[in-house]
Amino acid sequence: MQRVFLVHGWSVTATTTYGALHKQLEKLGFVAQDIYLGRFVSLDNRVTVRDVASAMHHELQRHLGNDWSTEFHLITHSTGALIVKDWIANYYTDKLVEHQPLQNVIFLAGPHFGSRLAHHGRSMVAHAKYKGDTGTELLKALELGSRFSWDIHGQWLRPETWKDKGIRPFNLIGDRVVKRPSDYKELSVIGGFLKVVKDEMLSALLPAHYEAGSDMTVRVPAGNLNFKRFLLSADPVNGAIFKPIGSISDIPFGALYRYTHSDMHGIMSSIKLRSKIESDMSQNLRLIRDCLSVDSDETYTTMRQTLTDETLITKGKRGGAYSQLDIRVSDTEDHPIEDYRFMLGYVEEGKLLPSKTVTHTHQNKVDKNHLTLFLDMSKFKWERTYYAYIDVDSGTPLVEYHPDPLQSPVSEPQNANFIDENQTTQLDIKLERRSHPNLFVFHAGNSAD
């Protein structure tokens, strides 16, 4: 018996979101009663990721009959990735893991490191569209550089969170932006024309939706659970210390040029009842089948190479790749620093110049000490040494940060270990907060004030 549980994304209200995926799984040999279509409330402003993960845990226990010995798999789409990662880290523990029943976890278009669109979901326009709540707490977790993202990936850096439990994750994400007539060849000429006109209008109003290096909702590097974390901190002797904290590097990841996040080209929604698994447009279905079939370290390694090869094909089609850099700025006591200026740059003729790789920056709306940079890696020059530069303002002359400014090399020539294509790098910056001598003074009792 092979049980499969499906978990959807944000703003979904019905199990029809899964399209024909579960029907296709039946064709692949899975029994209908062993395929479970998840449905959760995502538009309540007070519901958090942890709330949904807890509710999912109770439902799993109900459907498993508290039998945590029989194998099962999970397939998520979009925001479902956040729910499942939180559940794995905080609920799938202790005796439940004894027989390692959870085998393969397939993340389809998972916004592991956020979505540029998320903060728009909390806007007045979004509230009008959904006629009320929009899922404020979930959208906070989905925003680029969110506190949730830093916290959950801090947990996932520890092997006992997932790897030691025998879990085999997979990441599949589309790398396609549709806005040309050729993208709508399945439609009539008039239908395709109207779609293109709509796309042109929307791209002016919401450029994030048409961002190169994304699936029109999630950036490709944000959809990759492989990532790195570094610390850049104040040092009384050397001024600054730059060192690695941890990384995940061996999860199979595939960027697929045929698919977007949703709709007619969606990585999940394009799977139809009539889809033929051998056709080119059913690559997503074939890869889902192959991921579910993995049952050993050897086949996991084979699947990793398969998805790496597909990603290289996509890079050739797209002419390049992107990366994401998440910054968190705080003092050495972990108090956030919100007034700062950060630059990723390089030195030329004695001057520090901003890198042309940066195509977009986003300061988190909730945690303003979190900043996200989107990088076009085709403009990255490996022969250069890149620097992280930051200067801060305490808002008062009585408190200062050290060092200010801070400038430190983060990549050496021929050294690509700081930033990788199709991945996110988290850079934790910590500065020393110092009080000015005039903030507190003792005067001798016989001296004039």
Give the structure's gist in a few sentences.
The protein is α/β, with parallel strands linked by helices and 449 residues long. It has 9 helices and 17 strands. The chain folds into 2 domains: 3-225 and 249-318, 3-Layer(aba) Sandwich (Rossmann fold); 228-248 and 321-437, Immunoglobulin-like, CATH 2.60.40.
Provide a descriptive summary of the structure in words.
The chain is an alpha/beta fold. The chain has 2 domains: 293 residues, Alpha/Beta hydrolase fold, catalytic domain (Rossmann fold, 3-Layer(aba) Sandwich); 138 residues, Immunoglobulin-like, CATH 2.60.40. 24% of the residues lie in helices and 26% in strands. The protein contains 9 helices and 17 strands. Strands 6, 7, 9, 12, 13, 15 and 17 form a 7-stranded mixed β-sheet that branches. Strands 2-1-3-4-5-8 form a 6-stranded parallel β-sheet, sandwiched between helices. Strands 11-10-14-16 form a 4-stranded antiparallel β-sheet, with no helix packed on it. The protein is globular. About 1% of the residues have low confidence.
Strands, count: 17
Question: What percentage of amino acids are in beta strands?
Answer: 25-35%
Average predicted local confidence, pLDDT: 91
Helical fraction equals 10-25%
Oligomer: single chain
Evaluate the radius of gyration.
24 Å
The CATH class of the largest domain, by name, is Alpha Beta
CATH superfamily heading of the largest domain: Alpha/Beta hydrolase fold, catalytic domain
Write the CATH fold name of the largest domain: Rossmann fold
Q: Assign the CATH architecture of the largest domain.
A: 3-Layer(aba) Sandwich
Given the structure, what is the number of helices? 9
How far do the termini sit from each other?
Answer: 84 Å
Structural class: alpha/beta
Rough outline: globular
How many strands, what sense, and barrel or not for the largest sheet?
A: 7 strands, mixed
Q: What's the number of domains?
A: 2
| Regions with little confidence, pLDDT below 50 for 5+ residues | 123-128
Order of helices and strands: EHEHEHEHHHEHEEEHHEEEEEEEEE
